Amino acid sequence: MKKIVLVGINAKYTHTNLAIRYLAQYAGHPGVELFECTINQPAEQVAQELAAKNAALYGFSAYIWNIEYIRALAKAVPGIVLLGGPEASSAPEEYLEFADYIIRGEGEEAFRIFADKLERGEDLRGTPSLCYLQDGALRQNPPAPYVDLAGLLIPYENLQKFSGRVLYYESSRGCPFRCAYCLSSLSGGVRFAPVSKVLADLDRFTAAGVMKVKFVDRTFNANPARAREIFEHIIRSGGGTDFHFEIAADLLDEQACALLERARPGQIQLEIGVQSTHQPTLAAIKRVQDFGYTAKMVQRLAKAKNLHLHLDLIAGLPLEGMEQFCRSIDDVMALGAEKVQLGFLKVLKGSKMQEMAEEYGILYHASAPYEVCQTAQLSGRELAKLHQVEYLLDRTYNSGLFRHVVNYFGRQMGYANFYLQLSEQLEQEEISPRALGEKQLAEALLRFCQRSGEQMAKEMLRLDLLIKKRRPKLPAALECDAPWKRELFRENPEMLQSLPAGKRAWHYARLEDFSLDLCRYLKEGEICPGQGRYLFDYTDWSLHDLQTGQEAGFGSALPVLPRWEA
Prior knowledge:
The chain is of the alpha/beta class. 37% of the residues lie in helices and 19% in strands. Helix 1 (18-27) links the parallel strand 1 and strand 2 (32-38). It is globular.
């Protein structure tokens, strides 16, 4: 029996590779062995481990973020090298320089045939979907038939082993949209697994205590009724497993929103690709989107505070210059999602965008991940500035560390303008943003507040620093050691009763003055000036207004933002 090693190279240890597991399960070949590592491990060490297995065949699942790593490994293994995955499929002639064969497109049936031919010693070149070189010329065989998704079982051999990992799951293949930058637009429609199968699979994940299941469906709610049925089953079933979906907000409706609002906090995470709000850009890339409707759906779901909402933007798309992209940032940030990812265009091989690049003056790197470096509307310097914005946005807003001060400045001067000005301040101070720890970042934000003359912004920064999961220490300029704080605990010992027993119970709380109604702000997003005194209780992350008796939770919750208007 010939040994076959299928290699999955993941971005993080907590990730798992779905592709190699589907291939191994579908082939049913007893000699198949799975090997996983991460791109953070030394390639030389991984290559030695693979070479020591002395397999007849090494199969690699290739993507833009791991192809160069695979290139290094492929040169060091002793057996036949087979590549699959979107990156290898897009440019087989390039990767056949170091691989023996490539399977293009959907791989289960083709790999099963390939493995059987290898075992029997037959000519491998008769395998469908196979690409190879013959007399220096590229040969591409006709594609294998699509597999029936109803027959694909969960490819994880022992779910209990993965209780602390992120598991990837697929309930459909293909995409109904034709976005020029995406290879899924070439799939020619969507195929769905039966809902009954999907529900049974999800029950197995929940029963096994899997931490998170991430659906890889390109547009999970392409069939809205089917999506609602799956959402409803997840919510009704309960359990501690979280589920992540990529959806089109345009396809949400009243019924879907009402259903999602019933989910346990964190149970459902929605990733929504907005990409741009500039209409000429959307038309150029054939992106179908009604942003006014999307905004209303996102704001409604954000207001419920039980879902993790993740919105995506792409810089470097056709016809979108600095001014237009900054407007897209402002439009999306104003919706109150928990995370806004600012990405940069990747001109993927084989995509429609690759054909359009010259027409729109798009220059991009020749090697993976093929990121844009200049367009007719965006200079290289402007893209560099947007990379700084991306980093600062991740560190301040997406991290949850400084959301309130970001929202305050965002509503005062525009989110993009705030980040560009903060970046400029750091440049003038000759400080690299990547060199800043949490404390140094807070101090930089404090200097920004002081330069702006916005007293309320300092209050927002102080609030951000106070709503941690531990009793924080503030920068000296924000500390206020007022006598009333020391006297209050001494004169009102009953306030300590809810705190952990011990000599210094007040270490689990802080007393602070604020010049706004904090309870109202945290509940409604409305800034109402006025002096107030508050107890921050870090045993249950609650805020107590000592003058009115009102209470509010804090933790990492975002305030409700004013409604976005189209």
